Here is the input.
Amino acid sequence: MVQIRRVGPRIGVEISGIDLRTMSDDDFNRIYQAWLGHNVMVVKDQDLTMEEFLAYSRRFGIVSPHPSKSTRHPEVPEVTVMGINKFKPDGSLDQAVYRRGAEGWHTDGAYDDVPFKATQLYGLAIPDRGGDTHFASAYAAYDAMPERLRTRLEGVRGAFTYGGRRRNQALLNPEDRDRAPAFHLIIRTHAETGRKSLYFDPGKIMYIEGAEPAENDDLIEALTALMIQPEAEYRHKWSVGDVVIWDNRCSYHKAAGDYPPEQDRIHWRTSIKEWTAGA
Ligand SMILES: O=C(O)CCC(=O)C(=O)O
Ligand SMILES: [Fe+2]
Here is the structure.
């Protein structure tokens, strides 16, 4: 029996009693609606091959290879393997791998003209402490925006790059660095739910279109300060076999990045675009 349970007041839903390999279309439609309603969906106790994980991911949209080529699976570029090759040849910890996603709250793919609709992780090895993933609702961020800020930013686009103002591009190949920014509306309306959210990423934003430098800094500071609403957060504590998908159109996330480095924390990841986006 499929069980659907909310895990936080404004974000997060957990599904149990389902086998993603054999799930019916009706069951998929039910959990898809639950996901749309709660931004982040955890499906417990799965035992998937890479092909099965990919097949499930494809039910959400087009699975696209991530621009970080060096961390793609060598035979299956649509799958990123997170948390492997953590130690450099000299034995030191590679922080870019260990702390991937832990630099701060973000949304995946804002640097692309067509950002990811969703990102999905499958937990293969989980440390015995630390290593959680934090999520927060971008609808709640919009709700928290003062009217003055909403009026200023309605219809205004932000310019985003992979490395943002810090130019943090360690996991990109040299030929993929320093690309032109992508532009996205800061206040966006979700194509499926019709709800407004704050589309923002402090680590990827370069500037707000049309703002003078001083106002630009003020706006970025103001959005950074309000984007995370504590009553709209969910913290996921991983178990092996968890499949977690988040909606990048209306949520933020970050890795805690705090687990014992000598332990394994390994996930397969798929990055998923909208059907209409093209491959
Ligand atoms: O490893 C995690 O908990 C999340 C990493 C992340 O930001 C991502 O996969 O997009
Ligand atoms: Fe991420």
